[in-house]
Amino acid sequence: MTFERRILSPAPAFRETAAARSGEHTDRELELWLDERSRAHEFVVNKVPFSELDQWFFEEGTGDLCHRTGKFFRIEGIEIETNFGRTTRWMQPIILQPEVGILGYVTQRRKGVLHFLVQAKMEPGNINLLQLSPTVQATRSNFTQVHGGKLPPYLEYFLETARARVLVDQLQSEQGARFLRKRNRNVIVEVDEREVIPVYDDFHWVTLGQIQALLKQENVINMDSRTVLSCIRYHDSVEPDTLEKWRRGDSFADSVRYSQFADDNAALRTFDEIISWLTGLKVRYYLNVRRVPLDAVEGWVVEADRVHHVQDRFFSVVAVSVLAGSREVSSWSQPLIESAKGGMLCFVCQRKKGVLHFLVQGRVEPGHADSLELAPTLQCTPGNYDAARPDLYPPYYELVSTAPPEWIRYNRLQSEEGGRFYHDANRYMVLEVPPDVEIDVFDNYAWMTLHQIKEFIRFNNYINVEARSLLACIGFGDQWEEESR
According to the CATH classification, is domain 240-287+341-478 in 3.40.50.150? Predict the structure, then answer.
């Protein structure tokens, strides 16, 4: 069925579904379905030596870890030189995966409210193996069937433009410290409500409000879901009385909502001023990245079962074998990145001119296509630093790590992408600092409203994946209503 084209903003529908705490299925039905799917298939993941990887090998002459088809991805080395931060030169392994994947939600109005079709998806690196993903989460190698397996269900809604109305469609970056210039298509489409969409066992219709409620739990909504959800814009025209209610409200929920609508007159800086600040950072900081063979990477050791830093910091490359009855291919093996534990991602926010602002940093990472992207206030793994030298910790680490409980608005452990990272999780936090607490702002940091941050997300490759993933946990504020009552 061809979708009837309508030139309407999707923002009202997104706000409506974000407020819907129940939909076609209750939360209890959703919980039972997810538990049933976790028991429906056999999921087994084991670490193995590199020699037991099927179809993967260390390339002669470079030492790069490659797939025999030349597809999927490879792990090679890079040499970095920069004037950003204290370390100006280093070498490291990195994932090279130049193909663009699809991270996409199919949505449809059901019982009058926009619902999202989520997938209970097993990923080998997930801490709990099964998490909720977008409807389609697939690399180009997957959906061109390089693995010889089945096509992902519902792929046609993203490849055939006449099948659905596009609500969100953006090309966004992945982890700049782990991937070299990797991007994925983040997309949400709406299918005409008259079309009958088959719902397979591993899929379920939920409202955005139900997804946001699940984000208050740990390791349920996967990272690929979070990056797509962060692209949703809730801003368009609303009734003046509603806007005034949010402006005057003293709850965190109202502050979040108003921050997404506040125009430049209400912000600490105009959007043009922030663009100028960001341009200045890109001019000030240089980044030279040179691809090198993996066996030429200094300070890293290749062993039978892992590639690791000589100080056992940062991350390692490991190998796993996988059995997964619910995937397009039921068994395979692959390399994964295992990061150092204890990572922290935090947005510090504070009312400025009566509007909630978020402290954003301009951060250089070697894998970014444009060298510098906007990141959370704090993005670090404390174990990678010398505990005897607290002066070497990144800015605002002490503020975040010693914050009193009453400042904490969000504090959950959330998994990173389970298709490339092994048991990789970060502590996701949002701190609301009282207005009377003075915060020094370093040159590569700026206060921004949520409206301004969302504007940057629209234009691709400005907001890094860590910030986007954390922004998804903030949502439109509806999930904070119960806590503010």
Answer: no
